[in-house]
Design a protein that fits this description.
about 325 residues; mainly alpha; about 75% helix
Length: about 325
């Protein structure tokens, strides 16, 4: 049974764990119980994937030969960085160690990917998942204040912002000019709205009163354009057959909803009627899509376990 679960656990599921942990933080003001349930769910997924890394190392290594799959691998470390904030409630030291190790591992993964695919550049190896690789470590900014690491968080933000500006035109060219995305890669289009919104949340987490509103507005414009593009493509993506890459739909929507909520608080417009309902709509959409994708993954495991049970019964 255990091997059946690990055999059917793939790298993209870490993106779902990341989204669930992010959603826990987003919904924390509404319900403490929901916050803990979501964090425990995310932690459970990460534990299952960690066991898969140990149990099925060779398969994971083979998966990482695919640039599309390698691109989402850092979501494992991103999820750990968010979960470190939850673990910090119980053990500050353990939370700090997990945050630091995950951040360093994320950066190492970025360099390994660069050596493997960037230095041997092929435009068809470029996917929206490159945003995960070169911008995703900004998640470390969000939890950095918990460990007194705001200054490191600020450095991370500027590095991530510069890399985002460099990668953005490359990914745009690949998706809209070269095209030719296979069905398993199409869910990754949703990642387009993640980096701008992650940058906003990361920036507000470490700069706070020292923030540059012009920079925030610049990121907001990119955020709105990319979010609108993702909304248009969601129905097309959900009409595809299920792939583990469906997890790419989850975190971008959650971090977008978080970004708009944080911006509303920052600019003091949270109580504006129009903004209030827009913010609620983004939260509801994120919750619905994450829940739906979670159910699809549950069905995926149910089919695998059922096949195993029937095979044993014969």
């Amino acid at each position: 049974m255990f091997k059946t679960i690990t055999r059917n656990t793939h790298i993209p599921i870490c993106g779902l764990a990341l989204a669930i942990a992010s959603m826990a933080n987003l919904l924390a003001p509404l319900s403490n119980i929901v916050y803990h349930l979501l964090m425990i769910t995310s932690l459970t997924i990460i534990i299952v994937f960690s066991l898969t890394l140990i149990e099925d190392t060779n398969r994971i290594k083979e998966d990482l030969e695919n640039p599309l799959v390698f691109g989402v691998f850092p979501t494992y470390f991103m999820a750990l960085m968010l979960l470190s904030g939850y673990i910090e409630h119980f053990s500050h030291t353990l939370g700090y160690i997990i945050w630091g190790v995950a951040l360093v591992a994320n950066i190492i993964a970025m360099f390994i990917f660069s050596k493997k695919f960037l230095f041997n550049f092929k435009i068809k190896n470029v996917f929206p998942t490159w945003f995960v690789l070169f911008v995703g470590f900004l998640v470390g900014c969000i939890t950095s204040p918990l460990f007194g690491m705001e200054e490191i968080g600020k450095v991370l933000f500027y590095v991530g912002f510069i890399l985002y500006m460099l990668v953005l035109p490359l990914v745009i060219y690949r998706v809209f000019k070269v095209k030719q995305l296979a069905d398993p890669a199409k869910p990754s289009l949703a990642i387009f709205c993640a980096p701008a919104n992650l940058s906003i949340v990361a920036y507000l987490s470490v700069f706070k009163e020292q923030s540059n509103d012009y920079l925030l507005l610049f990121l907001l414009v990119i955020s709105i354009v990319t979010y609108a593009g993702v909304l248009i493509n969601i129905p097309k993506i959900l009409n595809l057959d299920f792939y583990p890459s469906f997890s790419a739909l989850t975190f971008p929507l959650v971090i977008s909803a978080t970004s708009y909520m944080k911006l509303g608080e920052h600019f003091g417009i949270s109580e504006n009627v129009v903004f209030h309902y827009i913010s609620i709509a983004t939260i509801v959409l994120a919750v619905v899509v994450v829940s739906y994708i979670f159910i699809l993954f549950c069905k995926h495991y149910h089919r695998a376990i059922s096949s195993y049970v029937f095979a044993k019964a014969e």
